[in-house]
Amino acid sequence: MTSSYFLSSTKNTTPEAFLFRTSHIYLPKHRPFVKDFPILKPQQSIFKSSLSLLTLGNNGFQRPFAALSSFAEADGEEVIKSNEHNHHQGNANSDDELPGMAQAFHISSRTASAISVCIALAALTFPLFMSSLGQGLAFKTKVLSYATLLFGFYMAWNIGANDVANAMGTSVGSGALSLRQAVVTAAVLEFSGALLMGTHVTSTMQKGILVANVFQGKDTLLFAGLLSSLAAAGTWLQVASYYGWPVSTTHCIVGSMVGFGLVYGGAGAVFWSSLARVTLSWVISPLVGAIVSFLVYKCIRRFVYSAPNPGQAAAAAAPIAVFLGVTGISFAAFPLSKTRLVAFAQALACGTAGAVLVYRIIRKQLGHLLAKPAKADPEPKPEAHNLKNIGFLSDIAGPTGTQLEIVYGVFGYMQVLSACFMSFAHGGNDVSNAIGPLAAALSILQGGMSTAEIVIPNDVLAWGGFGIVAGLTIWGYRVIATIGKKITELTPTRGFAAEFAAASVVLGASKLGLPISATHTLVGAVMGVGFARGLNSVRAETVREIVTSWAVTIPAGATFAVIYTWILTKFLSYLL
């Protein structure tokens, strides 16, 4: 198993700089300065809080985010061309060799195996104590209920392994959070979101894809189709997670339902207009996400990086971003009143409160540094004369030294906040992809109505949340590596631009009823940030793999669902 080290800047070679560069970004097979600095050895890796903003005092700045990592020099946000070339070319193969769980979290193989075994035992044991298993039912029905809960867990596990990267991938890639911190944070928030915000009512016909009347009176077939859809979607998600492909869990379950409905119910069993809307989101989601993130990042470079004092500009921009984000989220996703005008006023109040809170935190932590004037460079850099003058979209020379670290500190803090919210919201939203069919299958099995709305018990919501956390813990690092590292290099400003753009697009599209995928939007947003730095900053090979996986998702889910349904119907006819 290959040891892991961390890239460092070649300009700032003080021991302190190396110390801070070892704590966050995981990059395999890079071993600079190991002989001279034993602290870079994996056995002595340091785990420390990434939110250095929270530990700032009046004695100086604490170099947040791994001393700007390898992506930006200590004297400006400029990538070392030779390092970037080596990272793209010489290490392209090593990026494809994703690390194991032990390497990813810097734990022993024995500890990683113990964690996996404990999760497996819990998954097999907990259903026996759930009230949803059914009380007073025949033994065969209880066995099928137990199997149904395991099918749902399998789907939830794969949602955690693949989809949670939507929230945490950019934070890990930029260095705002270490992988271990991201997993622990996401685990708590995903479970809380699934339990507290997960939908309590669902329909047997998930996502409006299947026509309910076609399967009326065919409860056994519908039960087999629901279980097969869970297994099929989980299978394709597992394949995608193994290769590090970020795919849409909604598209997986939709493809599975379409395959089952088309083969066992005929063409009339599928709402083709709904399927067309889902397919359209393949184009709309990444395109809109890329455009918005491109503009957001260009705004940061234009109005923050080019300001006389970039640190003060970043501190001023943060409350504005919080105000817009909290106001939009409060009004669109969590309206406090049914009256639109009152709800909007309350959302403005929430946004103002959030902006004031962030402003005070930043001023308290960085006030002594923000008061200092920015130091001008003694000589302009040669590259500055070659910048293309095309107005708003022209390139901007970045801030330098402490100013750059202040900018990264502010935007890193903002990025972590947005990642936490996205993780909580994801747990409440996407857990339905697993527990919706699960609850419907349990209702059919235990004598409920096959076409009525199904009430989801709290223990099933918690079960889905546990599955998401389990998948995130064991395999989540794979897709996080793709979104955070393999599409383009990320820093706190780039990561914030991608997350803020993706969240804004998803929120707006959901409010307007437009077909959109959160996964596709975030991937497009990361690409947009890369395009803002130049076409060469985006890895075309990775993008091709991701787009191909998107195109294959629905056909693959449909194929697996047909095969699994055939097997299950044969088994159920023998068992029942």
TrEMBL record:
<feature type="transmembrane region" description="Helical">
    <location>
        <begin position="111"/>
        <end position="131"/>
    </location>
</feature>
<comment type="function">
    <text>Sodium-phosphate symporter.</text>
</comment>
<protein>
    <recommendedName>
        <fullName>Phosphate transporter</fullName>
    </recommendedName>
</protein>
<feature type="transmembrane region" description="Helical">
    <location>
        <begin position="547"/>
        <end position="567"/>
    </location>
</feature>
<keyword id="KW-0813">Transport</keyword>
<keyword id="KW-0812">Transmembrane</keyword>
<feature type="transmembrane region" description="Helical">
    <location>
        <begin position="252"/>
        <end position="273"/>
    </location>
</feature>
<feature type="transmembrane region" description="Helical">
    <location>
        <begin position="460"/>
        <end position="480"/>
    </location>
</feature>
<dbReference type="GO" id="GO:0035435">
    <property type="term" value="P:phosphate ion transmembrane transport"/>
</dbReference>
<feature type="transmembrane region" description="Helical">
    <location>
        <begin position="221"/>
        <end position="245"/>
    </location>
</feature>
<feature type="transmembrane region" description="Helical">
    <location>
        <begin position="143"/>
        <end position="161"/>
    </location>
</feature>
<comment type="similarity">
    <text>Belongs to the inorganic phosphate transporter (PiT) (TC 2.A.20) family.</text>
</comment>
<dbReference type="InterPro" id="IPR001204">
    <property type="entry name" value="Phos_transporter"/>
</dbReference>
<dbReference type="GO" id="GO:0005315">
    <property type="term" value="F:phosphate transmembrane transporter activity"/>
</dbReference>
<keyword id="KW-1133">Transmembrane helix</keyword>
<dbReference type="Pfam" id="PF01384">
    <property type="entry name" value="PHO4"/>
</dbReference>
<feature type="transmembrane region" description="Helical">
    <location>
        <begin position="312"/>
        <end position="335"/>
    </location>
</feature>
<dbReference type="GO" id="GO:0016020">
    <property type="term" value="C:membrane"/>
</dbReference>
<feature type="transmembrane region" description="Helical">
    <location>
        <begin position="279"/>
        <end position="300"/>
    </location>
</feature>
<keyword id="KW-0472">Membrane</keyword>
<feature type="transmembrane region" description="Helical">
    <location>
        <begin position="341"/>
        <end position="362"/>
    </location>
</feature>
<keyword id="KW-0592">Phosphate transport</keyword>
<feature type="transmembrane region" description="Helical">
    <location>
        <begin position="406"/>
        <end position="425"/>
    </location>
</feature>
